[in-house]
Prior knowledge:
Blueprint: H1 2-37, E1 46-51, H2 57-66, H3 73-81, E2 92-97, H4 102-109, E3 120-123, H5 130-139, H6 145-154, E4 184-187, H7 193-207, H8 210-218, H9 223-236, H10 243-255, H11 264-270, H12 309-316, E5 325-330, E6 335-339, H13 342-349
Antiparallel strand pairs: 1-2, 3-4, 5-6
Amino acid sequence: MIKFVKWMIGIVAALLLFLSIATYVGDIKKEYERELTGTATSKGTNVEITIPDGASAKEIAKILKANGLIKYERAFLKRLEESEYSGHLQPGKYTLNTGMNTLDMMKAMASLDNSNKVLQQLVVPEGFTIDQIARRCEEQGICSASEFISEVKSVTKADFPYLADVPTGADVRYKLEGYIFPATYDITKETTARTLVQWMLQTFENYYTEDMRNRAEALGLNSYEVVIRASMIEKECKIDSERAKIAGVINNRLNDDMLLQIDSTVLYPLTKGMYDKENVSYEDLEYESPYNTYKYEGLPVGPICNPGLACINAVLYPEEHNFLYYHVINEETGEHEFYETYDEHMDSQGSGGSDDSE
């Protein structure tokens, strides 16, 4: 009888232990499920945490557990991975509550504002014109070409101080030509034709430093005269080492009251800024335009493209030499040969040469 009683006591004790373990395991499972899928909130305690820059999701889960906000890192990470907040948790200081569900915690630490997310990039090469940029904007779906050009035309001299250098009443295609700075621009869903044009003009202002303005002034040039000269160099030169040399040729011809005779000053108005024609004919040289340096002395009426920083610096720091002519000797590389006299220039081209600077 005593053995039976002991046996029964053992059975009851084992059953109670099993039930206790089952209850414990059940509680764990419920708590795990609550952190994995729960949406309810309760009254809890506020806890301030700091998520450092570059923290991974696993590191964030450890911080939450260490501060008593969650118990199960795996549940948090699994829910995060399956949620809209995956990849969007941000560094910073947050005040969370122990009664919050894990989804609300994620929401508090995440940023789903994609207004500044880069969707694509607009590459504006050195030497592109406003018309070419407008076409590229339309091709990439950033804005229509007409919208871009409309914004270009709407900018006034009051918007950027350097635009005061553009002569009043100048018979130019665009008053901003030359100032739209070549660069790579990040495009977001907030980008418009207006913000893009303003950004490009601000970029020019950022790069055209006070030292450069002072250097231009010492040369007797304003910003508009600088970008006109730089735009011609941009179209004439493919080799870095030749930019300052071509700047010197332009100076020499102007000082000698010679026509500049630069083909690209004909192509710009002839092609309406698209440069979709490579060479000029003798007939083209008579094209009536204030840009045409075969017909009119001095600089063209305005820039013929938007030059990069290297060509602007070539204008500010030209080579001093006696060259008045140059001619392409390698079509592939764009390399030029330079000459001091017209006879040397003509001899280099044979009897088929023409009286121009290139």
